[in-house]
Design goal:
Elements: E1 2-8, E2 22-30, E3 37-39, E4 50-52, E5 60-71, E6 77-86, E7 92-95, H1 96-101, E8 105-111, E9 114-121, E10 124-129
Parallel strand pairs: 2-7, 3-6
Antiparallel strand pairs: 1-2, 1-5, 4-5, 5-6, 8-9, 9-10
Length: about 130
Amino acid sequence: MDCTLETDDELNEISNANTDGIESVEWLGDTGAQYHVKKAKINDKGTSMLTVTMDNNPKVEVLRKENLIVADEIGIEVELKGVRVVKGMATNIISLMQLVDEGWHMSSAQFDGNWIIQMTKNNQRLAFAGR
């Protein structure tokens, strides 16, 4: 599943010395991920004493945890809580299960002949198209 979102690094729980303002990045929605994970920038530093276990690697160091505001192509903003910043990630991951644990409702629907996963909470909505 994928969704193109923007992040606003100025709203991070822990400030990032390499803040470039708003950047357009791709996020993948993953039903098997336990946490939201953001790929670290090349010169990103930090240490949190935490690790995450990846599907293809034993354990990877988490540089820090952040709260991020992400927005879709039409500007609808959603806060992602406890995003782990990790070096070596190929892409950013939104944990759909973490959203469910935070009170989001998951449903599927067909749109233009393709299945999508929709996440809704109050007036917020995220949609992830299948690949």
